[in-house]
Design goal:
Layout: E1 3-7, H1 13-23, E2 29-32, H2 34-40, H3 43-49, E3 54-60, H4 64-76, E4 81-85, H5 90-103, E5 106-110, H6 117-120, H7 126-136, E6 140-142, H8 148-157, E7 162-166, E8 183-186, H9 188-191, H10 196-211
Parallel strand pairs: 1-2, 1-8, 2-3, 3-4, 4-5, 5-6, 6-7, 7-8
Helix pairs in contact: 4-5
Bound molecules: 6-hydroxyuridine-5'-phosphate.
């Protein structure tokens, strides 16, 4: 089944919990990033995980022993998945994957950022990153909904891996990403909408339509 992942990028714990409560029946997972974790503390992952599984988007990109510590903190606080930067290289990816195994967690690897700057450097190596992440045994990839042609190429390198695509909506990315991806990650166009539930419902219907 394809999924709708809600990126909760607000900077207030209570607002985040309110958004999560309002939308948890319409989305499949939550994703949290630095704005929320730095402002609310890492326990926010545990709090949110009482409603839906949480992906800790710490975009881990450090030397292996530090990457492992960061991943360990996320999983100890009930994250079900972490996001790492593929450009950090095989040793970091392996270190994070080893930690994930201890918690039965998942590792998603960023190929190239969905923003225009993602093409500048990462775009040149994203297919290699995808290939390497697969060889190492990572569970999934993060790939841009803003560059469908590139996403299609990444899909080819990633047989058997889950691909989640950010960039739909506020960044101009297309729902066509769902042709190649296993899910979309959406933040602002849901939580900043006049009616977040309606927008989440609309997106969820697309996700379900592409799941058939
Ligand atoms: P929004 O839908 O508001 O643009 O948010 C997208 C979310 O996905 C943010 O949390 C961002 O950090 C994340 N993301 C992204 O936008 N592009 C990427 O390439 C990788 C991401 O994790």
């Amino acid at each position: 089944m394809k999924e709708l992942v809600l990126a909760i990028d607000v900077e207030d714990r209570r607002v985040a919990l309110r958004i999560a409560e309002e939308l948890c029946d319409l989305v499949d997972r939550f994703k949290v990033n630095y704005p929320l974790i730095l402002s609310s503390g890492i326990r926010i992952i545990s709090e949110l995980s009482e409603m839906k599984p949480v992906i800790a988007d710490l975009k881990i990109a450090d030397v292996p022993h530090i990457s492992a510590k960061i991943a360990n903190l996320a999983f100890r606080n009930d994250a079900k998945a972490v996001i790492v930067h593929g450009f950090a290289g095989s040793d970091s990816l392996k270190a994070v994957l080893n930690v994930a195994k201890m918690f039965d967690g998942e590792v998603y690897v960023v190929t190239e950022l969905s923003s225009p700057g993602g093409e500048e450097f990462m775009g040149k190596v994203s297919l290699e990153i995808a290939k390497k992440a697969k060889e190492i045994g990572c569970h999934g990839l993060i790939a841009p909904a803003t560059r469908i042609e590139k996403l299609r190429e990444i899909r080819k390198k990633a047989e058997g891996m889950r691909i989640l695509c950010p960039g739909v909506g506020a960044q101009g990315g297309s729902l066509e990403a769902l042709r190649y991806a296993d899910g979309i990650i959406v933040g602002r166009s849901i939580y900043e909408a006049d009616n977040p539930r309606n927008e989440a419902k609309r997106l969820k219907e697309h996700v379900q339509a592409y799941s058939i």
